[in-house]
Amino acid sequence: MIVPLSAWVFGLLVEAAAAWFIFVLDLPVEALVLHAAACVLIAVVGIRDSSQSRFLPGASAWLFGVMLAVPVAGPICALILVGVIFLLSEKERDEDRIVLGLPGEENAPEGINKDRARSILETLASADTEARREAILSLRSEISPSAVLILQKAVGDSDEQVRNYAQSQLAKWTEQSEARIKRFTEASKKEGVSPTVFMALAESLVEMVLIHLAGPEVEGKYLRGALAALDRIEVGNPLRKNADLLATHCHLRLRQIPQAREVFDRLESAGFVHEAMDALRLRVLFHEKRWSALVEKLRVPSPSSSPDLIKCRNFWLSGGKSA
Fold first, then answer.
1. Interatomic CA distance for residues 178 and 218, integer angstroms
2. Long-range Cβ contacts of 242-246 (<8 Å, 24+ apart)
3. DSSP letter at 126?
4. If you write DSSP's letter for every residue of 124-181 in order, what string do you get?
5. What is the pTM of this model?
């Protein structure tokens, strides 16, 4: 932080000298030279080397343009703009996002479709460096399991710029997700907190696993954290059944099959109806290795079965041949 701070201070001193040259000594040419040097120090060196530069994307370019246009007044306007950017609090668009239900694989963000994902992977395998860079940049606003996996693959690309793009985007998404988890965690510690906060915390933790931002080594930590949050929702609360639905998913991911069966049976006994119940039932039977019961359930589809699940049934019942 010493280098950017000294660059800003020295740049302001040079700008002050430029003001002295133009207003007192009446030397406009020398003043413009000093002014340009001050702009370079402040906008280029000060921002580029600053540890806070990630908060000012493209700052070197637009700050330099603002300051260079008008001597003395330019740097003052630029500093005011920077101050406004840092002083205004930033609020994420999905800060209060609460999605009740099961954020399972079938309900994860769709993101890019299979054809586009395949096209991007083919581009990453090509020798066209510029095309690979553009392919990675095209994923910036599409957080999804597919996008994360593609970016993780691009981290090993031979081009440094492609690697930097991929690492930067993954770091940004991870930081956003962890910030959301931290926010809900802090909120859950308050007295009289709403059960929706526990639900949102659990869903945020599970989402980290579903979109592959949580690696295998920490996946268990996030899932156990989600279960702990769900346990804080009281039995009589209207959200309890949604919590059990998500808890069943977490137990299955953790390979805690008896616990998954216990929670799932509780949901069935209560007559809980949800589009994810059919898929969860099949998953529980599969992990229990109850093959005959699994086949029987596959033969008798539920009215609430999703189109994808029906396709899966048809695939397996046809002996693995596509219809």
1. 13
2. 242/100, 242/101, 242/102, 242/199, 243/198, 243/199, 243/202, 244/272, 245/101, 245/102, 245/272, 245/274, 245/276, 245/277, 245/280, 246/101, 246/102, 246/103, 246/199, 246/202, 246/203, 246/206
3. S
4. HTSS-HHHHHHHHHTTTT--SHHHHHHHHHHTT-SSHHHHHHHHHHHHHHHHHHHHHH
5. 0.61
Residue with tokens 């991007």: 120
Angle 172-65-167 from CA coordinates, rounded to 5°:
15
User: What's the pLDDT tens digit per position in 48-105?
Assistant: 544 444 444 445 555 666 666 666 676 667 667 666 655 554 444 333 333 334 444 4
Q: How far apart are CA 304 and CA 113, in angstroms?
A: 24
Placement of tokens 């039995």 in the chain: 235
Show the tokens assigned to 198: 């526990």
List the one residue out of 216, 206, 140 whose CA is nearest residue 177: 206
For residues 30 and 37, give the distance between their C-alpha atoms in angstroms, rounded to a whole number: 11
Sign of CA dihedral 130, 123, 156, 210: positive
Decide if 195 contacts 239 (C-beta within 8 A).
yes
Alpha carbon of 146 to those of 110, 111, 164: distances in Å? 8, 7, 19
Least confident of 6-15, 228-237, 242-251, 312-321: 312-321
